Amino acid sequence: MSDTPRLGLPLLAAGQAQKHVTHNDALMRLDALVHLVVASRTQTVPPASPAETSAYIVPAGGTGVFAGHQDELAIFEDGAWNFLPPRAGWQAWVTDEAEHHVWIGTQWRRSQPESSLGAALWGVNTAADTTNRLAVSADASLFNHAGTDHRLKLNKASASQTASLLFQDNWSGRAEIGLAGDDQFRIKVSPDGGNWTEALVIDRTTGLVTLPASTWAREIPRQNLLINGDFQINQRAFAGGALANGVYGYDRWKASGASSMTLAGDVLTLASGEIAQVVERAFWGLMSLASTTVTLSVEAPTQNLAVTVGSASGTIAAGAGRRSITLTTGAGDTGNITVKLARSGAGAVSFGRVRLEAGTGATPWQGRPEEGWLAARYCHVLRPGAAGVRLAAGQLIDTGELSVGIALPAPLRANNPNVAQSGLNRRVFSESPVTGVTGSAAHGAMLSLILSSAALSAGVSYTALLTTAGSGSYLAVEAEL
């Protein structure tokens, strides 16, 4: 045997001449291999002027004298390059990476000993890098408890950052779960890693679950807390134009300050002022709307739209399609809350189909078949439109008071509504005009009225009919907030 088995050091032969040459060669090899330091493991071209005992790990694609020596140690000795195949367990400090590596028999692998200070990079069966500082290549990974619980934590710097689990197919994203860009819990999927569809959102405050891409979610959206959001119910026959402060126009919508508006189809144009609607939280089964995340959305606002919900406010940016703003109501918004819409700048603003819903993200618009019933809870106008229509039968006593009961389409919000009439008559033997309303009360969907009219014979009660006098006749019952 002429070389040592581990480091390949030359041995002195018996009777060898010039033993110092062999001995010195072995010492130089020891000097290079013990506490091995290599300049690089990525340099494919040999250095032009290497220093004595300069060492490199030859990478794939080596050129010049490095060619054909991948993964071997190249050591410059006595003016020439010597190449040593590494043996399992050999270790080297790579200067240009400031990393410790070990040859495991098939590859040079980064090897950083564990310490109380932690490791900057750690690769298990693969190479870690400055982005993936912990990298694991394995069939499975186990994170076990140390006696009781075990929690895996993903922490991000702020709400606008991302903390998520990303599932990939051949390094291309297919699904992501977590907090992506805000603090709502989201699940999204992708067919190609570039186009993503949001499948589920869980509101961080309310726990409300929405399915933005689901057919079910489009067909049965979250409850709209506003009534007559498309302005199609118009029992007061408001023709558009000016409205004084607090006066109702289209059902459930009133002016907040002096306002002017017109309606074309389901698009409202607000020329001045603002419109408002009071949301009766108890009617929707809500204990309170205080400190609640809500989203208000409209269709295609032509300019920025100022929005107020309770004590919270913001702006919906102009643009095509459904546009929205998410707000959090104040802690003091415990009762009914007022929603207001106004122009954000000069000039008229047009928009349509207003929705207010709990949670984040606007769901698509959908009309409700019960919208008229909802509006009738606050206001109902009987406007028969033809002369001589019989509205009700009742008793006329000799004082001239006509007592009648009228069925309503929905139970009124309050039992003491405001009632107004115009062009109503009572008929016994002949028509006599009704001159006023002296009393009213609501009991569920039944309205009891006492109307003043002409008296008949003293001490006699008559069965009388309440009729309309013409196309302008009406009976208006109002229990607005």
Automatic annotation (TrEMBL):
InterPro entries the record matches: DUF2793 (IPR021251)
Listed name of the protein: DUF2793 domain-containing protein
The organism's taxonomic lineage, starting at the top: Bacteria, Pseudomonadati, Pseudomonadota, Alphaproteobacteria, Hyphomicrobiales
